[in-house]
Design a protein that fits this description.
Elements: E1 2-4, H1 7-19, E2 25-28, E3 35-36, H2 41-56, H3 60-80, H4 89-101, H5 107-128, E4 130-131, H6 133-145, E5 148-153, H7 159-169, E6 177-180, H8 181-184, H9 192-195, E7 203-206, H10 209-218, E8 222-226, H11 232-237, H12 241-249, H13 257-269, H14 274-284
Parallel strand pairs: 1-8, 2-5, 2-7, 5-6, 7-8
Antiparallel strand pairs: 3-4
Helix pairs in contact: 1-6, 2-3, 2-5, 3-4, 4-5, 5-7, 13-14
Length: 286
């Protein structure tokens, strides 16, 4: 597993590696670096709740509680089917509307409203999306050399939704195939999503040391993991935030032996590369 601390540093190395390899298909993690949405996801869902409360004329607190119940109920159905990923957002929104006002609407009206809510949320996210220029350049360069470039992502949004978001980033022309956990019901993190791919990638690039690194390697896919320290989402997804954020908030000097010990245990627990473990151990003073 090759590891890097930024997309900017990964790009030249990737191009050099590709020049020496016979590779036909590459896959990328979408949210891990392509578009930074961690700040806006909660705001988008909050806007959706306000929108539905206004449409149905109901209290926002009740609408929020119903959404949590809808997720739990939909998840229970998913688990009973042997699936390991949360249900698609459209399925959850459908159940959400039924819990709140299902008796007053037809199935078609509920489906139409659920679709409208999803579309509004996608538009909100697209308007606030921040594209990663360095990663876009990497994908553009890779696409010139490959016959097929894929997005493989754990998300409750469908491939259709991700295409819309990618238009904002300007990378739609570089992507041939989109595969999401929402469409398959299976997670990249467990490795089961990789099993569903009709074309096995020769290379997978992402930010999660488990789902993008270890799991890809288990399927004989060359994994490249980028630890983007500038991205809060990347740090969170890879587990680095469990170490970095406490250090950051404490001026890189966490107090107390127990705090240091907990951070060291976290460092060893995750499949970080050795050079990164050394860097983190130095930060906590051990």
């Amino acid at each position: 597993m090759r590891t890097f601390l930024s997309w900017k540093s990964a790009g030249p190395q990737l191009e050099m590696w590709l020049s020496r390899k016979d590779v036909e298909t590459a896959s990328f993690s979408f949210f891990g670096g392509l578009i930074d949405l961690d700040v806006h996801r909660q705001a988008a869902r909050r806007q959706t709740m306000i929108n539905l409360a206004q449409r149905l004329g109901q209290d926002e607190t009740l609408v929020s509680a119903a959404l949590e119940s809808a997720w739990n109920l939909a998840n229970a159905v998913h688990v009973s089917k042997g699936l390991d990923w949360e249900p698609p957002v459209r399925v959850v929104f459908d159940r959400w509307i039924r819990l709140l006002n299902g008796h007053a609407q037809t199935d078609q009206e509920i489906a139409d409203l659920a679709e409208a809510l999803v579309e509004n949320e996608i538009e909100f996210l697209a308007d606030h999306a921040t594209a990663n220029a360095a990663l876009i350049q990497v994908i553009a360069n890779v696409n010139r050399d490959f016959t097929h470039t894929m997005i493989v992502e754990d998300t409750s949004f469908s491939a259709h939704d991700l295409r819309k978001l990618s238009q904002k980033a300007g990378v739609t022309d570089f992507i041939d195939t989109w595969v999401t956990s929402a469409d398959k019901g299976l997670r990249k993190h467990t490795g089961r999503l990789f099993k569903t791919l009709e074309r096995k990638p020769d290379l997978h690039v992402g930010t999660d040391p488990v789902s993008d690194g270890v799991r890809a390697a288990e399927f004989k896919i060359e994994p490249w993991v980028v630890y983007d320290w500038k991205s809060q989402y990347s740090r969170h997804k890879s587990g680095i935030d469990k170490i970095w954020w406490p250090l950051e908030s404490a001026g890189l000097e966490p107090s107390g032996r127990s705090a240091k010990s907990a951070m060291i245990r976290t460092i060893h627990k995750h499949p970080y590369p050795e050079f990164l473990k050394i860097k983190l151990r130095n930060l906590v003073g051990k």
